[in-house]
Design the sequence.
């Protein structure tokens, strides 16, 4: 168990601001499967075990298959994901690895398959899980057995 600070206890206002952002994401038109694919993939890239554990459970509860969850880190090499999912996964990877920037090709593909509102909601969901990953990793959060 980590002996690092618990943000929710030490900075409740900051934590509440994050919860407000998460509540916004939950209120968007994003499908549950899209939200969970974003959360799992970003968490895999960032190495946030706590979030990977939480969101794979949530994805299963939302009807996601084991096969797709297991293959998510190699999504480009499988036939399991449709055009929209491929666009949101590519966008998730590039926003998560932001130092490489978001390419015009990736952005334009996402803009082609999603309307402007959905695209904005996707980007906010990606940004939000990246913030949660940073909280989880920086504070040493671990999944329970």
Sequence:
């Amino acid at each position: 168990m980590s002996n690092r600070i618990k943000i929710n206890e030490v900075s409740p206002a900051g934590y509440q601001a994050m919860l407000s952002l998460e509540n916004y994401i939950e209120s968007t038109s994003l499908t549950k499967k899209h939200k969970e694919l974003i959360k799992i993939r970003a968490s895999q890239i960032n190495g946030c075990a706590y979030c990977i554990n939480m969101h794979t459970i949530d994805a299963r509860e939302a009807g996601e298959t084991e096969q797709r969850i297991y293959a998510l880190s190699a999504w480009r090499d499988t036939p399991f994901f449709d055009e929209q999912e491929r666009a949101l996964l590519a966008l998730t990877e590039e926003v998560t690895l932001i130092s490489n920037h978001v390419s015009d090709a990736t952005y334009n593909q996402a803009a082609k398959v999603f309307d402007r509102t959905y695209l904005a909601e996707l980007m906010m969901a990606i940004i939000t899980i990246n913030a949660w990953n940073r909280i989880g990793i920086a504070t040493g959060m671990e999944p329970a057995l």
The chain has eight helices and no strands.
